[in-house]
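To whoever is on call:

I kicked off a structure prediction for a single chain this morning and the downstream step that reads the tokens threw a length-mismatch warning. I double-checked the sequence; it's 260 residues and nothing unusual in it as far as I can see. Pasting both halves so you can look.
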Amino acid sequence: MIKFKFPFFGKNGKAPVARRPVDLFAVGIEDPLFHEKFKGLRAMVEQKADLHRMKLLGITSSIAGEGKTITCVQLGRSLASTGRKKVLLVDVDVRKADLTHGMGERRSPGLTEYLLGGVPLQQILHSTRIPNLSLIPSGIEVNSPADLLAGDRFKSFLQEIRMMYDMILLDTPPVLPVADTPTIRNLTDGFLLVYRAGFTPYTMLRQAMEELGEKNVLGAVINGVEVESDSYYRKYYGAYYHRDVKGMIDSEKNGEAIRK
């Protein structure tokens, strides 16, 4: 099982608070260790996916506020940045649509419109500023998302996008508050469960794993854990980290300029 510790919430253990949507691509952009951590997670996910022929993963958490959406975006970006995989992010959390808003996209048309038969698949596929990374926004909010996700059209949708992309990450709702994610637990190749240390009771993590079925949980991303060796790496390897991140930023800017 993948087990990865990540200090996203910083030393004070508090999540960033914002009145407006956060630019999910901008989070941690100037922090070399932030990106190194996601490269480590990417390597683990790629190894597992290649070994077991997995390509459709759900990213979820027990409750809201644990960092699942930022994990989904940054993992997707890291996977796409290698040039080895064509990656798709899907906003399945249609109640909140944090992934859609955080990537600067409109909700509609999106997943729900497609599942309701209102638009073709190609109309809801959006390219992003990151080469090899695409997005399907959430679509309009509906009364019962779990029923929509349980339908045959959603199953057919997953089969179709499997044929189009090398890796697909679903940003799904938290497991415990609503039934949406457990509804699709057997339709993915597995889930990464984001756990925010010091915020979410461990009993809720265990309950979420039971709801998903432990066989469906590929691993846990433990968020909010301070990395003891940060100062060591910054002292001895900082120049290499900063050079690598600068190259990544320049590459993304060049790619965006070309598309414009």
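Update from on-call: the warning came from a stale cache, not from the record. Cleared it. Sanity check on the structure: Residues 10-19, 239-243, 256-260 have pLDDT under 50 and may be disordered.
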